[in-house]
Amino acid sequence: MLKSFIQIFSSLKLTVACLVLGCVIVFWGTIAQVHIGLYRAQAEVFHSLLIYWQPSGANWKIPIFPGGYLIAGVLLINLLVAHVRYYQLGRKKFGIALIHLGIVLMLLGQMLTDYLSVESVMHLRLGESKNYSESERGGEIAVIDTTDKNSYKVVAVPCDLLARRGDVRNPELPFDLHVKAYYANSQLSDKAAPGFEPVKATAGMGTSLWWRELPHETVMERTDIPSAIISITDAQGPVGTFLVSELLGQPQSFACNGRQYELVLRPERFYKPFSLQLIEFKHDRYPGTDIPKNFSSRVRLQRPDTHEDREVLIFMNNPLRFAGDTFYQASFDSDDRGSVLQVVHNPGWITPYLACALVGVGLTIQFLTHLIPFLKRRLA
Amino acid sequence: MKYHPTKTIITGLSVILLAAGCQREQVQVYRVDKDPAPLPVTATITPSSDPTPPAATALPPDHPDVSAATATPDSTGPLTWTTPTDWTEVPPSEIRVASFKITQDGRTADVSVIPLGGMAGGDSANVNRWRGQVGLSALSEDEIQKSADPVEIGGQPASLYDAGGASDTAPRIIGAIQHRDDTAWFFKLAGDGKLVEQQKAAFVEFLKSVKFAGMAPAQAGLPATLPPGHPDISNMGNTSTDTTPISHEGQPNWQVPTGWREVSGGQFLAAKFLLTNDGGIAAVNVSRSAGDGGGLAANVNRWRGQLGLPPVTDVSTSPVDVAGGTGSLVDLSGTSAQTGQPVRLVAVIVTQADNAWFYKLMGEAKVVENQKDAFVKFVQGAKY
Prior knowledge:
The complex is a heterodimer of chains A (about 375) and B (about 375). With about 375 residues, chain A is of the alpha+beta class. Chain A is built from six helices and 19 strands. In chain A, a hairpin with a 5-residue loop joins strand 4 and strand 5. The two termini of chain A are about 50 Å apart. With about 375 residues, chain B is an alpha+beta fold. Chain B is built from six helices and 17 strands.
């Protein structure tokens, strides 16, 4: 069995097949962006094992093509197995070994980045301080116990998980959440309108609203607005049925078992052990024009556990790297009174640099391995 | 034993597919401090008590709300106050714009000033939240309204609520809520019952000492006390006074209807007019913003928030012919966030190539009804 495995996965034909399939999905993914948007194209074509086809209106789908992860995974195994099978010890092949190692590291690093990295944004208005960033795409339903004097206890359920499971039970909550309806993208109205249906909520802000489901947004600058109808039930019976939506923005309060809770659908939050406060935002323009020259945010960084307290200037190509996060100057508010920092948490950030260095050194060694004997022969 | 390459491939693929089933999404449970411990001030940040912070002026009532967050600490404007003697000012954290600690005989109390956008969930919900924090059950809206004591903050009326403190050591919260334009201001004194009781008088004096620069009620010819049902038409961030000359720089050419009285709109408004009719009052605010000013939906929803209406994605407007194109007219009725009285808003957004003009008529329903035609003609007649 091992012999068969080595024969199949060390095949050069498999390498070529993977490269061709890779080219196909790059083309596929590029075209798909037009129809399903950048983020869904990335998720469905590149960050997937298989690409699925779903007939319009159907609730089933079938795999029709290998996805990016499958192709890259097979290519990685192919590279490793071929290396084990064919590599011969010796100085002449050392450069080749380094090149292969670099490519393997690049593939592994990209997978690591896809799996472990988290991208989010921190939107700060002047004077505002935050110790969390928020996802640009993913939402969460947060149930917040506000009863305690000094702290909130938060149970956060990702929207995708909620939609998939339908019910959420957590030992930290004295009640169950049941999703009666979930729209990944939605629209609300305060009056009856074609296509809208009444929100079947019994409590909170949604009792007098109408809603409807919308297709996913494909325009990059726009995002889906998820909404859901959540019924809350404790041991005594129903507590209430609420409409939650990113559009509502504000939490809705209810009481259960003598404790006060808030329910809110919001962008997924990533809390930090430190906070940033926007002290100053500058949007410099070239004199006499509206052409942007520079954007910069002066922030105050405070970390209570280490008593670190300092000011940092973040501007384009000069991010703040702190506690495993990198804060880039990404955008700003149209009134120049707010700044948007892109927050990247990527434990595998070093791997592309190492991989490129290894490949570069490997190519140089391999080149010199041939060049030096050649020059010696010519000079002899 | 015979080896089957096909089986090998199928086995490998199965392992990969199973791995794909593992999702990163999971329920997370965590605690978040309500009031993270403040650090000593060592940075050169301008404290919010600075009467002239570098860029902490408020957005005007008609300025497009470009902030998606509910917290609007930048809308503090140049907030000033007199700190009571026993209080220690500490750097504000999170969404606070001012923060104080009181320590006496081993007891501690905390004072916070927090502005939140819109109605911030409503007064009742917030008072019940405070009651929950001190172990009391929720009250009905009527009971909460009856429990409110009048208090003055920045020269304008506000409501004071008192919860808890059944014993010296029991937690107690005294909170005041005031609505100014589309911002709800929360002033809260929280701590041990005995200390809070001792500090109550100082807290009330502190509230009286708070000033929002340029927001004196008598500004721009406004009466000291607005009639019931009248929306708060004072202008946050308005640094002008009665004697400030009204600037017409940057204004379109327009014909001001008879009976409208132009007053200073401050640095954020292009123009401001007061309208009175049969004892009622309304105001017209005109402002300009670069680009589309945040878009139609965002601005309409901001106005809806001022009337206590929930936001919608399906914004309905009526077309209005204006100079150089078509404007979008919005007509909304609701409840004033300041007074709880019925109020009506008629607004027109005129979008141009590189900026947008916002015209807003807001006030008592009968005045708005009487002035609506004149208002629309005023907007239509403006030449840019």
